[in-house]
Specification:
Largest sheet: 8 strands, parallel
CATH topology of the largest domain: TIM Barrel
Helix content: 10-25%
Strand content: 15-25%
Order of helices and strands: EHHEEEHEHEEHEHEHEHHEHEHHEEEEEE
Distance between the termini: 35 Å
Bound molecules: 1-deoxynojirimycin
Radius of gyration: 24 Å
CATH architecture of the largest domain: Alpha-Beta Barrel
Length: 528
């Protein structure tokens, strides 16, 4: 990772995000575990992914699915032991797969011993580890939210998310002189928190982790409207990481690539929050359909205009467009496999580092209306058990159905890995072929340059060039069910050879190539 350089391995990395609760349960308690991840490594190798992002797997009361850590240095017993995690690193590395953990630097659980100590009346080592007002009658200062009446200590604590996630104290960029409890970034309390953060990273990197996805990375320094001090803090962490673990990757959940990459992260996501654009690709807006909607009516430009702003500045790292994740509806939220094939043709040929959320590769559905589990609420429907085969509980677990972490997709024809593996035309095999094509084609990997060739407001298709050195690809996507045609400049694009695709023809005439595309079609051409 780093501000100066980025691990080489990221150039052709394809991440697979694992929500450990729901991946594979080997001890029949209804909850996935690390031994389960290890058992499924061969599947990941077969699929062709070469990196894992594992959602938090540390000791926690699980009021927010593990994003409420109670011990950063110990694996939650329900997932296994520290030795199991080390075994996962080793086994993954043997197959050429990297493993990145989820680092939650912004807050802990209220169950964390640091927080319990900081709740005490008597001053101690952890008094300044969190953000507290000086009196229970001081309600704090928006936009921070505070919880009052919780502790013996006379004060209210700031939270980052749920009431059970007290904000760790990294200081305030501009402490308000009327709020003496707002400490500057370089005060002893904030500096001790920062030192502990490095210690946690060091602990897991030493054991073999390949990096971290960093939760709410932009949230650390408070009252920092232009993120300057947060950027500075991360640069300091990155410098340390560079010196000690130059091959470690740092991936931010920041949602603003220009800022995050400046801060030294190797990768930042475009997401359903942060800078706009991502949602216009995949989610219906108030008065607007998304671009990947077979009914048409979307526009790729809302995404592309924003993306290009960041992409042009992103010489220092990569922007990722995830297939979905544990915080948003799955990509298969009322989509068909035909729709999803076009979506994956986009995701696997786009610059930056792709992230596939477990189950998206077989088109697992977002399940509506589930009761919340572990603080999931509307997110719960994206967190259901992986569907491996047609055996008990879809091969996820041998526990009784009632014991499962979450119920399975109840449909008879729910997609499974086993079924799709054997069908050459399945979504799974489609994704696998795209991954293979990407990995063997430098122009399609993270660093290959991207240039739009046809992208017009409220129009389909979307056509773009990928290029690295002399290798070039043209990718054409028509997610809408209407046939469309579009011209591009032919210059430099001789001999288009179809690598993968369906329903696309082209005609060259003089300086133009015109693409004729049926509904829901896509093509990836190698330009000779
Ligand atoms: C972002 C995580 O992805 C989400 O699941 C969590 O609830 C919040 N951060 C708070 O940690």
């Amino acid at each position: 990772m780093s501000y100066q350089s980025h691990p080489k391995w990221l150039e052709d990395a394809i991440f697979y995000q694992i929500y450990p609760q729901s991946f594979y349960d080997t001890n029949s308690d209804g909850i996935g575990d690390l031994a389960g991840v290890i058992e499924k490594l061969d599947y990941l190798s077969w699929l062709g992914v070469n990196a894992i992002w594992l959602n938090p797997c540390f000791v926690s009361p699980f009021q927010d699915a593990g994003y409420d850590v109670a011990d950063y240095y110990r694996v939650a017993p329900r997932y296994g032991t520290n030795a199991d995690l080390t075994r996962l690193f080793k086994q993954a590395h043997r197959r050429g797969i990297k493993v990145c953990l989820d680092l939650v630097p912004g807050h802990t659980s209220i169950e964390h011993p640091w927080f319990k100590a900081s709740c005490r009346h008597k001053r101690n080592q952890y008094t300044d580890r969190y953000i507290w007002t000086n009196s229970t009658w001081d309600g704090g200062m928006p936009p921070l939210k505070f919880i009052n009446g919780f502790a013996e200590r006379d004060g209210n604590y700031a939270i980052n998310f749920f009431y059970s996630q007290p904000a760790l104290n990294y200081g305030f960029a501009r402490p308000n002189p009327y709020c003496p409890w707002q400490q500057p970034v370089d005060a002893p309390g904030p500096m001790a928190t920062r030192a502990e953060l490095k210690k946690i990273m060091d602990f897991w990197l030493k054991k073999g982790a390949d990096g971290f996805r960093v939760d709410l990375a932009a949230s650390l320094v408070k009252n920092d409207p232009d993120s300057k001090m947060t950027i500075k803090l991360w640069r300091d962490v990155c410098k340390w990481l560079d010196q000690n673990y130059p091959e470690a990757a740092l991936i931010s959940e920041w949602g603003n690539p220009s800022e995050a990459l400046q801060a030294g992260f190797d990768i930042d996501f475009m997401l359903h929050f942060g800078v706009p654009g991502y949602t216009s690709l995949f989610f219906k807006g108030k008065n607007q359909r998304c671009f990947f909607d077979s009914r048409g009516g979307g526009t790729v430009c809302d995404f592309l205009d924003e993306y290009l702003k960041h992409y042009r500045k992103a010489r220092k790292g990569y922007i990722s467009i995830p297939s979905s994740n544990h915080d948003m509806p799955r990509i298969n939220n009322r989509r068909t496999n035909r729709d999803l094939e076009v979506v994956f043709a986009f995701l696997m040929t786009w610059p930056g580092v792709p992230f596939i959320y477990y189950g998206d590769e077989i088109g697992m559905r977002y399940i509506r209306g589930l009761p919340s589990r572990e603080g999931g609420y509307a997110r719960t429907g994206s967190r259901t058990p992986m569907q491996w085969d047609n055996g008990k509980n879809a091969g996820f677990s041998l526990a009784g159905a009632k014991q499962l972490y979450l119920p399975l997709d109840g449909r008879k024809n729910r997609p499974t890995v086993l079924d799709q593996k054997t069908r050459p035309t399945s979504l799974l095999n489609h994704v696998r072929r795209l991954i293979a094509l990407r990995k063997k084609s430098p122009a399609l990997t993270a660093k290959g340059k991207m240039e739009p060739l046809f992208a017009k407001p409220a129009k389909y298709p979307f056509i773009y060039l990928r290029q690295r050195g002399r290798e070039k690809f043209v990718v054409a996507l028509n997610p809408s069910s209407e046939p469309v045609s579009a011209p591009i400049e032919a210059q430099g694009l001789n001999n288009l050879n179809l690598e993968m695709g369906r329903g696309v023809k082209f005609a060259s005439k003089g300086k133009r190539i015109t693409f004729l595309m049926t509904g829901q079609s896509y093509a990836v051409y190698r330009a000779g």
